[in-house]
Amino acid sequence: MTGATELRERTRELLKAHPPATTGRTDFLKARFDAGLAWVHYPVGLGGLDAPRSLQAVVDAELEAAGAPDNDPRRIGIGLGMAAPTILAYGTEEQKKRFLRPLWVGEEVWCQLFSEPGAGSDLAALGTRAVRDGDTWVVNGQKVWTSSAHVARWAILIARTDPDLPKHRGITYFLCDMTDPGVEVRPLRQITGEAEFNEVFLTDVRIPDAHRLGEVGDGWKVAQTTLNNERVAIGGARIPREGGMIGPVSRTWRERPELRTHDLHQRLLDLWVDAEVARLTGERLRQQLVAGQPGPEGSGMKLAFARLNQEISGLEVELLDEEGLLYGDWTMRRPELVDFTGRDAGYRYLRSKGNSIEGGTSEVLLNIVAERVLGLPAEPRNDKDVAWKDLTR
Predict the structure, then answer these.
(1) CB atoms within 10 A of CB 285
(2) Helices 297-319 and 262-288 sit at what angle, rounded to 10 degrees?
(3) Which uninterrupted H or E stretch holds 99?
(4) Mutual orientation of helices 297-319 and 246-255 as an angle, nearest 10°?
(5) 45-91 residue pLDDT tens
(6) CA-CA distance, 191 to 72, in Å (whole number)?
(7) Are the C-beta atoms of residues 136 and 206 closer than 8 Å to each other?
């Protein structure tokens, strides 16, 4: 088994052979992937060394100290956090070799074509159709709330392949080429003024059967791997103490004593403790991942993430008083990533409203925690055994 000492040595050999100061960013990242130091817990030949996941921190620390470039994980978060673990779990060897390296290096950005106008919280009710035509599938439908679709090269897509089966059983999972002429991406302007989300229209998009992930009809099962990883990626990201949303308001409190009141002090203390508890819980969840794939516990982390962001940003606006009513820039842009801490309080307040919707609504996640974590009785569902084509829509 690869240990910390061997990983440090491998990392130093990489740095010696490819000095960050004189090696192009992309070339360095490719060399790092090929050395098995991209994600050390992945298999040999796919950017890893079959090492314990916990040892990734050893590699990252050595590279950071040497000033090595990272792969801009926030820009390619959907690929790293959702597409990659799903491809690893269900992809063929050819798919893994084709997609994982350019995904990790950041040469190919990914997006997620799951939600639809009529299938958001009830995702399994999706109506986008995929019809087989020889060795290809012809896809027609509409997706919505698609982050990064305007910059994505590939998408993870679920579509209905058998309308005669109940809604959870007639779905298949695909890897969709976003450059297909039948893919149209339109911006969705948000309350922040920006359009990081999109709606995507699919018209006779042709997907080779070789880009199907998992068996035909097993799309819901495959999608659960994506969704579980998504919630961990959103709610369980590794951050330092006072990282995330609690950082800016804590700094304002220390630097602007004239804004303080007793009530705000008590609320800030409560939220600071909650944020620290959430951070440490996320650390424990990541340690559990060493033993396998994420489970429904990630839904609890994502719930806490949404609640904390909304409450902390609300407190920050109140703390700033009249300044909290200002908004820096309402220019219509299509950003490549969301930057909570690098923007003003008004942006944080407005953008955090979406945290309880994206990545699974809080209402749906509460059901998941109740049923799959706490073991409470499931809600009655009268449509589980009804063919999708017979559902009322």
Answers:
(1) 18
(2) 160
(3) helix 93-105
(4) 30
(5) 999 999 988 899 999 999 999 999 999 998 999 999 999 999 999 99
(6) 26
(7) yes
